[in-house]
């Protein structure tokens, strides 16, 4: 029995694992990497690029035809909600959690949907995706306990859960809008 049902599913799982590994492996150096970016003025642009990446992934995931009005309206609403949430968070580190763990949640959700679409029995639930993503965030915080100058922060875990919930809800909303008038 094959582990993956398609090349797309394998690619989605590989990307999810890669993102999580990059997060875990850069825990000790991420602040050193971000300080020059913020000092040079590139920090906000990098952050906006991350936001754009999440938005593009949400909007284009499983898109096979040109969007219709319900999808366009849903996409604009998703962009506005993401914008308001991200602007309300003061610390760049916390905003980063929303972007990174939102991407992880979307990759996991897309991989599960891909497996389910092939006819395999898979329990595809947004709640499961949020829980798995939150556990990955919890592991992230537990790893920080072993690092100097890093602390275990429950708020970061909550931001990870929020990121997953927002991303999966946005994706499900867009999929619902795609189903309208079809």
Description:
- There is one protein chain.
- The chain is an all-alpha fold and 182 residues long.
- Helices cover 76% and strands 0% of the residues.
Task: Quickly describe the structure.
The protein has 182 residues and is mostly helical. The protein is 76% helix and 0% strand.
Order of helices and strands: HHHHHHH
Residues in helices, as a percent range: over 70%
Between the first and last Cα atoms, what is the distance in angstroms?
35 Å
Shape summary: globular
Cα gyration radius (Å): 17 Å
Total strands: 0
H/I helix tally:
7
Largest sheet: none
Which residue ranges are poorly predicted, with pLDDT under 50 across at least 5 consecutive positions? none
Number of domains: 1
Estimate what percentage of residues fall within beta strands. under 5%
Mean pLDDT: 83
Features:
7 helices; 182 residues; mainly alpha; single chain
Fold topology:
Blueprint: H1 7-25, H2 30-40, H3 43-60, H4 69-87, H5 92-117, H6 126-144, H7 154-179
Helix pairs in contact: 1-5, 3-4, 3-5, 4-7, 5-6, 5-7, 6-7
